[in-house]
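[User] Could I get a sequence and structure tokens?

[Assistant]
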Amino acid sequence: MNFYSFSSFLTPIKVSGMLGRTGNMLRSVRGISGLENLAKSNNEGFLPISRRYFIFSTIANKRKVYEKKKLVGYSDEQMFSVVSDVENYQNFLPWCKKSHVYGKRENFLKGDLIIGFPPLSEKYTSNVTMTKPNYIKAECVDGKLFSYFLTIWRFSRGLKDIPQSCVIDIHVAFEFKSAIYSQFSHIFFDQVVRQMEDAFIREAQCRYGRPAIQSHVLGHRSS
């Protein structure tokens, strides 16, 4: 996966082109009733997010953004339960060495995470806000590693005829304080995010059994 600067990636022509390619990709997927309509509805969800990125077009390319929409064979409540279980991240996320939750109340918690993957091993604190079962936002508020780190998860209903399915919409944006770490991010960040996605799906399978359907990527982009 290549990372592009905001100035080259976030032009109206390239955004519309990517949406078109996403639609073409999904039209080629057959065998699941309603997937084509789901593709159209989720393509509509990308554009407002991308328009907001135009505001940040002058930010240096140290800031990285990753987005993916994915149809999975678990319900929105099931996936929300897995992703919101910050205290147990250390037990199923491969790069999370320790996770500690405190200040927990309805729809909010603070989490201290120690992450460790070459060449990094650092602690940071996130404020996590939630709206069950559709929305989770984790924002770094303290740490030596990141000057900015935001993760947003959205969960929406999947296929009408398959209740145990949902669409995951993940948005990750970050910027390292260190210029050296920023250079390393070009090499390992895509792999780390993919490992994170896979780990949440595997944990859902451990908790709830086999998925109702095979996962399908509905859209993906990074910068």
The mean pLDDT is 78. The two ends are 10 Å apart (CA to CA). The CA atoms of residues 63 and 175 lie 4 Å apart.
